[in-house]
TrEMBL record:
Lineage: Bacteria, Bacillati, Actinomycetota, Actinomycetes, Propionibacteriales
Keywords: Membrane, Transmembrane, Transmembrane helix
Name assigned to this protein: ABC transporter permease
Transmembrane segments: 25-44, 64-84, 105-132, 152-169, 176-196, 231-249
């Protein structure tokens, strides 16, 4: 059987696995409630502000405020879905059905990353619509929306890759979640607060700082750019996936 056919069938099986467990639906529902809830709060606040958020502001700006909450949901879901069958032992029959580990890696990564990216983008777009519904004068310009959502799609895709790689490398939901939280939230903020140039520079090279800059345009260093933030986040994502992929390809599934 040709590789494309096997990949397609494995991808279909991974899609079914993803949505056949309760945790996926719980995480998706919780993330949606948080993101849309904060979108509602943002919309309510701007609707009662007579001065308005500014002449150049749009409802997409309000949606961007919720993007970080969506990112945490995306990261958590990616970790859980990539490590679930390692925790239950289901990885053994999975590899019996799909002995080509490279195919399994490609299918699992592709399905999780695509799903998490789409979920994050749709939720932020929904939050933007909620903000616009409260204050239609802000507008939802098409061009600004495409630009904002495309940037966020990169952030969510890279974040999901990072989470999947850490999940495959650690084969532990708890360890991968702690690692993701440390790299995206704790370490960048902690290093940026230390009164040393080297710590601030190290913070700027963490994936969380890259994601923060791409979402809000702010980072621990003034010399950060969109290109440098993308490069930082992309390198962390690819390195993590390579590490996780090597462990999947070269070690026994139950170790």
């Amino acid at each position: 059987m040709s590789t494309p056919i096997v990949l397609a069938r494995t991808g279909s099986a991974e899609w079914s696995r993803l949505w056949s467990v309760r945790s996926t639906w719980i995480f998706a529902a919780a993330t949606a409630v948080v993101v849309l809830g904060f979108g509602t709060i943002m919309g309510y606040d701007v609707s009662g502000d007579p001065t308005g958020p500014g002449p150049d502001a749009t409802a997409w700006d309000g949606g961007r405020f919720t993007a970080m909450f969506a990112l945490f949901g995306v990261l958590a879901m990616a970790v859980v879905t990539s490590t679930a069958d390692h925790g239950t032992g289901g990885i053994v029959p999975t590899l019996q059905w799909t002995p080509r580990r490279g195919v399994l890696l490609a299918a699992r990564t592709g399905v999780i990353v695509a799903t998490m990216t789409l979920l994050g983008v749709v939720l932020v777009a929904g939050a933007s619509v909620v903000v616009w519904a409260f204050r239609p004068s802000l507008g939802l310009p098409f061009g600004a929306g495409v630009e904002a959502l495309a940037e966020l799609a990169f952030v969510y895709a890279a974040g999901a890759l990072l989470a999947v790689g850490l999940g495959l490398a650690t084969r532990s939901t708890a360890a991968a979640l702690v690692s993701v939280i440390a790299l995206v939230l704790v370490l960048p903020m902690l290093l940026a607060q230390l009164p040393y140039e080297w710590s601030v520079g190290l913070s700027a090279r963490m994936p969380g700082s890259g994601a923060l800059f791409l979402i809000f345009g702010e980072g621990p260093r003034d010399d950060m750019t969109t290109a440098s933030a993308r490069l930082t986040l992309g390198l962390w994502a690819v390195t993590s996936l390579v590490a996780g992929g090597l462990r999947l390809m070269r070690t026994d599934a139950d170790r």
